[in-house]
Design goal:
The chain is an alpha+beta fold and 791 residues long. The protein is built from 25 helices and 28 strands. The chain is globular and about 95 Å long.
Length: 791
């Protein structure tokens, strides 16, 4: 979870615009928006939402200089907790990237390998640091302001045109922050860098909602923007954590602020929010844990609130809900809650922040308040709306992980639950899945709950009857087993088509009574959840079998051939249940030559895989008979044309003589291979291509002859390695070439040995693919390095 000031993602309509659209991702538009931002969090959010699509967002941060001359984290996105603890405050005299950028007064780039070696996430294993990060100094009139750090999709050097854009964005942020700091200093009568009256900064100003002035901005303990140590002075004011005009406007309008952390389940209200709801504010006047909404929302309005919240969580973005709150001491007040559901880079809801207002106070003089609900029929309709919202969300879940994510992200907050544990039936046993999928800071708690509730979940499933806790009897399990610590809980057996699927435990932080309507709602939810899990598990099973079939048709290992080192990778598609037709092969040929084959059959189904297997066998036979690459492709194309199929395939076939480095190659509509030279250059081989195999049975393919020097490397790949829906294909190829050059300069085979270096390169290339939200196509790659005499 991100502990620093939040940034606001683009609206739903904006998010639907392709990221490559010049209108949506214009650098000039981004600069114009930056000059109107109100703080550091908004500046960073604007860059991530409106800047170029190759700024990935994950791991980006903005540092500001405080009065002590230290760089202090003011806003971030996607930084893990360990990074906040370790790099929340940076000494400008040190050698960390933020300090280096400020000392050098120019951009400072960290390669993917630098970030993985120097700044690893030791809690999550290897690979988590493999992103390129650029740090940009923010300086105005020779006066340093801070540092902007951005994570990039570049896998190597940053092109000059992109660097110009980044420097422009950094300058715009610097000038805007300088203006905000001057404005804050003028309002407080304090010189920039000083504190009024010499008092220590506390950061306990009244939070003001989703613009960064939420309790998340100051941290739950009211300390810094990250919850560690004292709050920055200028940094806090410029970050918008306690903007005087905004706070005054919110208080004058009678609005209160709130924040809900959807990862931990914690919720905070400011003092004004308590007053709006007719509750006594905290004694210290600062933010405090919010009361349980189930206890204060009018019972007739609670289903409406839960249904509207489920819809907001499913879509993300702004929302507005009106409901009645029970005042302490009697009476009700009509509340309007306006907020925004903030999503992470994987489109999962992680935080809600916003304002609450007294609708009765805002009503015109003489206007009568709206009537309450007559009877209970509308409440039943609201419960149906909640069930419908949850059903729609679960209908979009494809895998078991998707189902669990939906339950965690949408059902848990909508029900107001503290935790949800899912167990699935596997060979007659109940195995917990939710805590292993969910992870994060709640994994330990969910594991404890799963162990604690194992007996009662089996009991409920065996009886096929939901179990509900009752006030005063929640301390022990229904079967008389060990104590259950949650004040309230329900266990739902999951049965689909008469088959036991699993069991679901829902716990609550406060004691509650489950009425007849509540029990009906949870029982209906159990049926929908069971159907979704059964469908998802069937999908997972078919996808696993399809992937295993695909892998079985590829080489289990690459042969060890004299004079070369090699490495290969294959990644199946993550979309759909079908298998693809990507393949590769490394052949031992007569006279000591080596053959490299890589291809991609059109389509993602069993037929494509069958054709791939035939082509691999046929091409291997033609190649080992001694035909050159051009003749081999021509013969294979004629054979494919004669098969009873409408499919075609792209293919690259080349041969290498390790003794003298002679290359012979032909290409059938396939991406050109890349040669990584001894002087750290990555260039595509100029191979005239012919049509894909099977398109024209009479087509002839051009035979190209070249040379691969000792110490040089070849990369052959299928287009799934570089294709990205959010980026132009040619740009993706150029970024890959930049990454290869960076790898060659820093960790080429000449430094650590060819075989380990190729394996690391293969990991880096596939990491670039696995970081995407989805992988619509299979990915195959084959690396071939010609040994030098001393290797």
């Amino acid at each position: 979870m991100d502990l620093s000031s939040p940034w606001l993602p683009p609206s739903e309509d904006e998010s639907r615009t392709p990221r490559s659209s010049p209108t949506a991702r214009s650098a000039m538009r981004c600069v114009r928006l930056l000059l109107g931002c109100a703080g550091a969090a908004e500046l960073l959010g604007t860059i991530l939402a409106e800047g170029p699509g190759w700024i990935t967002g994950e791991g980006s941060a903005l540092y500001l200089l405080d009065s002590a001359g230290m760089l202090r984290l003011a806003a971030s996105h996607g930084l893990p907790e360990w990074a906040h603890e370790r790099y929340g405050v940076v000494d400008p005299a040190g050698d960390l990237p933020a300090a280096m950028a400020l000392k050098l007064r120019r951009p400072y780039l960290l390669s993917p390998e630098r970030t993985s070696v120097d700044y690893p996430n030791r809690n999550a294993g290897m690979g988590t640091g493999m992103v390129a990060i650029i740090t940009l100094p923010m300086v105005v009139d020779e006066q340093p302001i801070g540092v902007l750090a951005l994570a990039l999709a570049h896998r190597g050097t940053v092109p000059r045109r992109d660097l110009d854009v980044l420097e422009t964005l950094g300058d715009a942020c610097a000038h805007r922050l300088s203006h905000l700091l001057d404005h804050a200093s003028a309002e407080t009568g304090t010189p920039r860098g000083g504190r009024p009256g010499g008092a220590p900064a506390t950061g306990t100003g009244t939070p003001s909602g989703p613009d960064g002035n939420s309790p998340a901005g100051n941290g739950p303990n009211g300390n810094g923007p990250n919850g560690y140590g004292p709050a920055p002075d200028d940094a806090g004011r410029a970050a918008g954590l306690a903007h005087p005009m905004l706070s005054l406007a919110v208080r004058s309008a009678g609005h209160g602020a709130f924040e809900r952390d959807l990862v931990t389940g914690e919720a905070y209200w400011d003092a004004q929010a308590y007053r709006v709801a007719g509750q006594p504010p905290p004694a210290d006047g600062g933010p405090a844990a919010a009361p349980d909404l189930d206890r204060i929302v009018h019972p007739e309005d609670l289903p409406d609130f839960q249904a509207a919240l489920a819809e907001a969580l499913a879509t993300g973005g702004p929302y507005r809900i009106t409901y009645r709150v029970l005042r302490r001491g009697g009476g009700v007040v009509r509340i309007e809650e306006t907020g925004e559901v903030m999503l992470d880079v994987h489109r999962r809801p992680v935080r809600i922040a916003g304002l609450v207002a007294d609708r009765d106070r805002a009503r015109a003089p003489g206007e009568r308040p709206p009537a309450g609900r007559p009877g209970g029929a509308p409440a039943a309709g609201a419960r149906s709306a909640l069930l419908l919202a949850l059903t729609r969300a679960l209908s979009r879940a494809v895998t078991v992980r998707d189902v669990t994510t939906t339950v965690t992200d949408i059902a848990r907050p909508a029900f107001g639950a503290a935790s949800i544990v899912l167990d699935l039936v596997d060979e007659g046993r109940l195995l917990p899945v939710s805590h292993t999928v969910y992870g994060g800071p709640r994994r330990t708690e969910l594991t404890r709950l799963a162990d604690l509730s194992e007996g009662v979940m089996q009991h409920a499933l065996a009886r096929s009857t939901p179990l509900f806790s009752e006030p005063g009897r929640t301390g022990r399990a229904p079967d008389g087993g060990g104590p259950l610590t949650p004040p309230a809980w329900t266990v739902l057996p999951l049965v689909a088509s008469g088959r036991q699927v699993g069991s679901c435990l829902i716990t609550f932080a406060t004691e509650r009574a489950f009425g007849r309507e509540d029990r009906t709602l949870y029982s209906a939810f159990a049926g929908v959840l069971a159907q979704s899990l059964e469908r998802a598990r069937l999908y997972d099973t078919h996808h696993h079998r399809a992937t295993e079939l695909q892998r079985a048709m590829l080489p289990r290992t690459l042969p060890r051939l004299p004079g070369i080192a090699s490495a290969a990778r294959y990644l199946p598609s993550t979309e759909g249940m079908q298998i693809g037709g990507d393949w590769y092969d490394l052949l031992r040929l007569p006279e000591g030559r080596i053959g490299l084959v890589i291809g991609d059959v059109q389509g993602h189904n069993a037929e494509a895989t069958a054709v791939m297997g035939q082509l691999r066998s046929v091409l291997r036979a033609y190649a080992t008979d001694g035909h050159d690459p051009a003749a081999t492709l021509a013969r294979t194309s004629r054979l494919l044309s004669g098969l009873d199929t409408d499919l075609f395939a792209t293919c690259l076939y080349l041969t290498l003589d390790p003794a003298d480095g002679t290359l012979r190659a032909a290409r059938a509509g396939h991406p050109s291979p890349v040669r990584i030279t001894d002087d750290a250059k990555a260039v595509e081989l100029d191979l005239p291509g012919g049509p894909p195999l099977g398109v024209d049975p009479e087509a002839a393919y051009h035979l190209s002859v070249g040379h691969l020097a000792a110490g040089e490397t070849l990369l052959a790949y299928t287009d799934g390695l570089v294709e990205d829906r959010e980026e132009d294909y040619d740009e993706s190829v150029q970024r890959m070439l930049g990454g290869l050059e960076l790898w060659a300069r820093q960790t080429g085979p000449g430094r650590i040995g060819p075989a380990p270096a190729l394996e690391r390169l293969a990991d880096l290339l596939t990491l670039n693919v696995t970081e995407r939200r989805s992988r619509p196509d299979d990915v195959a790659l084959l690396l071939l390095h010609r040994m030098s005499a001393g290797q």
